[in-house]
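Dear U.,

For the methods section draft, I wanted the exact inputs and outputs in one place so we can describe them consistently. I've listed the two proteins in the order they'll appear in the manuscript figures. Please don't edit the token lines directly; just add comments below if something needs changing.

First protein:
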Amino acid sequence: MSQKKVDAYKARKSTRGRADKKEKIMFTLEMFAWAFICVVVVAWIGYSAYVKVAGTKAEVVQNTVLDTSALDNYISGIDTDEDADTTEETADETDAADTTEDENAEAADDTTATEDTADDSAETADDTAATEETGDSAAK
């Protein structure tokens, strides 16, 4: 080897440690930068997907209607079971009132029929009287 080559080799050998450290630091910084870029991209995609899913769910309004009439009837039935004697007496009174109403309705129907017959008789009498008057005036 020539003297020039030997001197260049010795110069590189003496600075090799600093160059290797610098190269390792640059590689490490480059890897951190790529990792940071990947994390940002994944976070951005995840956030965008979350906004689309959460935004769609937030717009949907679901109304629920609950019919509590059966429950209300049951509860009122419990209250009335305590007053069962009073309820039975009321039922007997209602049956008696229904019977009286039926009898009154039949009597009203009979009265209406009698009134209709009386009206028909009055109309017949009026017609007869009118005919007689017309006949009398025709005879004159």
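Second protein (the one for the lower panel):
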Amino acid sequence: MNTLNGAVTEYSRFAFQSITPRLAGSALGLFQLGGDTDAGEPIAGRIDTGARDWGGTQMKGVAAAYFSLRQTSGEAIFAVGVEDGSVYTYPVALRAKGVSRADPGRGIRENFLSFGFEVPGGQAFVLSGIEVDIRASKTRRVA
């Protein structure tokens, strides 16, 4: 975890106990970090918010999600996680103007939601903002 900004780096193939920008350590030894792959696989940058109620006790839906990033072409994936552990993914066409949009399905109605953003295939990107248009139900508090 980056203690300055709270960012977390996870390696699924290695049980690193400590990490710096160039080195990582585990019970197996010290490893030098670098390159364009993670054990031969493209590095996929992913951001997850974790589940929370996002204000109020009403059930919520997601009308749209907007992403500000310096990536002018390609595709990304927006993910919406719900209470039962299901994750719904939606394509995001990255636009040259710097703001891209995802349009989730209208059927999501949950109290706790989590959000994710991923640019697969090892493409570099700089994400400067995520804005999710969360709509609270006017009447529903429980399913």
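Candidate sentences for the figure legend, describing the second protein: The longest strand covers residues 60-69. The chain has a mean pLDDT of 83.

Thanks,
Y.
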